[in-house]
Structures are given as structure tokens and as C-alpha cells.
Amino acid sequence: MRFVIRRLGALAATLLVSSFIIYAAMYAAPGSPESFLVRGRTVSPEVLASIRVQYGLDEPFLVRYWHWLTGVLSGDFGESLATRQDVASLLASRIPTTLGLTAYAALLIVVFGVVAGVVAGLRGGALDTAVLLGSSVGFAIPTFFAAVLLMSVFAVTLGWFPVFGAGAGLSGRLLHLTLPAVALALPAIAVVARITRTAVVEERDTEHVSVSLARGVPWRVVARRHIVRNAMLPVTTIVGVNVAALVAGAAVVEHAFTLDGIGSLLIDAVQQKDFAVVQAVALVLVAVFGVVNLVIDVLYAVIDPRVQLGGESA
């Protein structure tokens, strides 16, 4: 429990520092909220001053940051400059699509990446060669090109899947998100399969595995307890990193398939200089990365208790 509490404290500190950087970066970027609000029109100094007062832009930077941070802690992310909608409501309506897409892609990464790497590392032969070749192809295909290719073949030519939208209901949602999830997960599957295969091969060739087999321990037991379990430490890291990156990478796929997720919301907000929305989405992305890293740390302690013991002795 102390191990988890320490990691939660580190996550809270990371989010605090990140929130300041995100808030400051938006005001350091070219342009300003005032220029967007007046939309290039020439206004009198009095009107400009009233706009600054209305949106709290006349206050010192640290005061504005403090008001924004306290609002975020209470669930208030401010108001969108473009649509005048509550940012929290915008996020709440977009997050389910992104969560569904990333969860689907993460499942594909685990099923195809980890399983393919484990099987290839344990069995070798033609299957190993096929996994190495397939992972090399997956490395070379950018996410956006994969989205266009999948859409062209399986949606337009074959008509097996819908082209646009997120669908309604569980079956409709799964059908609509299949092609976007495959496009999003494809590069990560290649990375995870290659690293998993390498980790399994290294563990398979270790001395303690040879000794266990020489003592008559069944291959199935050795593979499960000594090879796969020990290989899961680096695999857990790479899976966690790629799953965390899915949320950021989802923006490209959501834009290609016109999905109403937070990735497409971020792209629109950046183009419109909608500061409040950009800050909120960026903070959500940082929080997702932090939570995934926390889960990885906990899984490390479950797989290898020495990780937890090492942290306590430090």
C-alpha cells in the first residue's frame, strides 16, 4: 500500500508541474485570446479592455493560473472561446469515443503483439520468421497511411465496415471502431511483437532454463514459470508506453475517420486557438500517461516483488 501511495504522490506532483507548463505554453504561443475573440476586427481600446476583464485576462499570469487550477480541481475547465460551451461538457461528450477506440486498440496490441511475440519466441521456425517479417512491415506503415489503406480496402472496396462515425449501441460501436482501432494499433503491435519475441528468446536461452529442462521439468511448466514470466518485465514496459501513446495518436485516426473523440477536438481547438479546450485536453493526455505509468509500476511489483522491495529500501 505504501508503494502505491508513493506512486500516487509522484503522479500528483507530475500533474501539478504539467498543468503549469501547459497553461504557460498556451500563453507563450503566437496569438492571444483577445485576437481570437475580436476575430481580426478593429476594436476600440475600451472594448478590448472590457473583453480582457470579462475573461479575466487583465489579472496577473499567476493569478489566472491559480483560478484555472482551482477550477480544474473542482471539475471546471472553463468555457470554450469558440463555442461558448462548458469545456467539461465537451470533454464528457468526447471521452467515451476516445476511450472505446484506445481500449479496442490496446486489446489488439495485447492479443496480437504479446501473443505473437511469445509464440514466435518459444517455437521459432517459420512462425518466428513470419512474426519478424510482419513486424518489419508494421514499423514501416504510418498510422495515417494505414487508416487510408484500411478504409479503401475494407470499407470502400469490400464494404465490410462503415467508413465514418462512431456508431450506436455496443455492436454498432464495435463495428465502426474496428478499422480505426486496427490502424491505431498496427505500429504498436509490430513494436510489442518484436520486443516480446526478443525477451522470450533471451529468457529461453538462459542457463536456469536449461538446468530446469535437464532435471526433467516439463517444457510447459518451464515456459510458463521461467521464460514467459521473466520476459514480462520489459514487455509490460513497452505495452504500457504504447497504450499510453494511443491517446495522443488517436487524434490522427479520429480525424481520418471523422470520429467525435478528444483527439479531433484537440485538432479543432488548436486551429481555432481555443485556449481553454487545448489546455483541458492536454491535461487529460498527461493524466492518462501518468495513470498508465502508475499501472505499469504496480504490475512491475506484482510480476517481480523485488521492484517493490527495492523502492522501499531506497
UniProtKB/TrEMBL annotation:
The keyword Protease does not apply. Its main location: membrane. Residues 95-296 form the ABC transmembrane type-1 domain. Pfam families: BPD_transp_1, BPD_transp_1_N. It is found in: Cell membrane. The keyword Transport applies. Signal peptide: none annotated. Keywords: Cell membrane, Membrane, Transmembrane, Transmembrane helix, Transport. This is ABC transporter permease.
